[in-house]
Q: What sequence folds into this?
């Protein structure tokens, strides 16, 4: 018999189960609609939907490109555009059904997932996800197996990963982590730290307010403006840094390096390309397997090349001044020294026949040893009372010590 006591027990059990249930929940999209239409010589499907605004957004798709735009809006709206060529309407609808798009909110994270559920993917199938979100999101994380990724207008952090497409990021208030198997990466303005990696594409950074770490298997790297330190590595492309307020460390397997206005020390290495630096506040170390080296406006420098010329201009930048060591196996070396720079200089040419050491400073004394068949050249002296050592050495070439004009 169903008694009042039994009813009370059932109600109590229901309340206990409700309390014990996890607080996280999954909320489906507020609305999702789809339609199929003819688009040129292909069939297209458009899926539209919306989600409530939360702190984080995760987009994970098996195929297709993803575009996310942050703006002054309350919720999350998305449009998924898929396209299939060379197919009948019936076949197209069947293929569209294989690509399942789901959207939901779980806890403080909104999810948009594109999952291919068929046995094989059709050759002429493409997809694009366009998502509009509130600007004040803490995290936007994007993953696609092969399409491009494009995100802008986000106040928080952005993480982007694609199997091979290009990545474009701009107007990001937090940090950025971006990785592609082989596409190019372009970054506009980012306030946080940058971590960029591509298997072989180029990397371009227009304005980075945080620390920069950029790595590519073979493409070129360019940084227009950096507010903190930058570490750049490429397997063989060229490297260009136009302005960086902090320390710079760059390495390339064989490309050229061109650095302009560096606000700290610099470490430069290339397997065989040329090196050029306009100015640096700290000590510069430059090394190349065979190209020329030009370092202008530096307090001190270490420069070494296997078979190129070296030109260095030593100035008083107010930064740390250390010993300088300039060496080439086969090439000329020219050192410009500013009038307010105090150094001890020591220069030598191993094979002096047909070569010479010249100096604008009477304090530098030049000597030769040996005969006309086997002659070596040396020079030394103290300028402005002496200071850190500047060592200049070439096996075969000329050495020229000149006054630096302002």
A:
């Amino acid at each position: 018999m169903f008694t009042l006591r039994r009813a009370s027990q059932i109600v109590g059990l229901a309340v206990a189960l409700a309390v014990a249930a996890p607080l996280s929940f999954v909320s489906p999209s507020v609305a999702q609609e789809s339609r199929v239409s003819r688009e040129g010589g292909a069939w297209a499907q458009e899926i539209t939907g919306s989600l409530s605004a939360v702190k984080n957004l995760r987009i994970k798709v098996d195929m297709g490109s993803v575009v996310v735009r942050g703006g002054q809006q309350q919720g999350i709206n998305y449009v998924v555009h898929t396209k299939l060529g060379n197919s009948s309407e019936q076949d197209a609808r069947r293929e569209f059904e294989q690509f399942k798009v789901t959207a939901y909110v779980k806890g403080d994270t909104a999810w948009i997932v594109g999952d291919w559920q068929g046995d094989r993917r059709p050759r002429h199938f493409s997809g694009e996800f366009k998502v509009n979100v509130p600007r004040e999101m803490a995290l936007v994380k994007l993953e696609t197996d092969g399409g491009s990724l494009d995100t802008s207008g986000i106040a928080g952090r952005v993480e982007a990963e694609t199997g091979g497409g290009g990545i474009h990021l701009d107007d990001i208030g937090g940090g950025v982590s971006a990785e592609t198997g082989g596409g190019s990466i372009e970054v506009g303005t980012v306030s946080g730290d940058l971590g960029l990696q591509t298997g072989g594409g180029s990397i371009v950074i227009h304005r980075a307010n945080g620390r920069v770490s950029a790595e590519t298997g073979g493409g070129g790297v360019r940084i227009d403006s950096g507010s903190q330190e930058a570490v750049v590595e490429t397997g063989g492309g060229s490297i260009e840094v136009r302005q960086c307020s902090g320390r710079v460390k760059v390495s390339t397997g064989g490309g050229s390096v061109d650095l302009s206005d560096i606000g700290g020390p610099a470490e430069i290495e290339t397997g065989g390309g040329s090196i050029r630096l306009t100015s640096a506040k700290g000590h510069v170390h430059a090394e190349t397997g065979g190209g020329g080296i030009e370092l202008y406006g530096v307090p001190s420098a270490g420069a070494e090349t296997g078979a190129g010329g070296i030109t260095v201009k030593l100035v008083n930048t107010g930064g740390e001044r250390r010993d300088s060591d300039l060496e080439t196996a086969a090439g000329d070396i020219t050192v410009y020294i500013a009038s307010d720079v105090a150094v001890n200089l020591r220069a030598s040419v191993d094979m002096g026949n047909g070569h010479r050491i010249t100096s604008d400073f009477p304090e530098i004394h030049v000597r030769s040893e040996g005969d006309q068949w086997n002659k070596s050249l040396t020079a030394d002296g103290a300028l402005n009372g002496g200071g850190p050592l500047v060592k200049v050495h070439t096996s075969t070439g000329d050495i020229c010590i000149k006054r630096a004009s302002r």
User: Anything to note?
Assistant: Residues 23-145 form one domain.
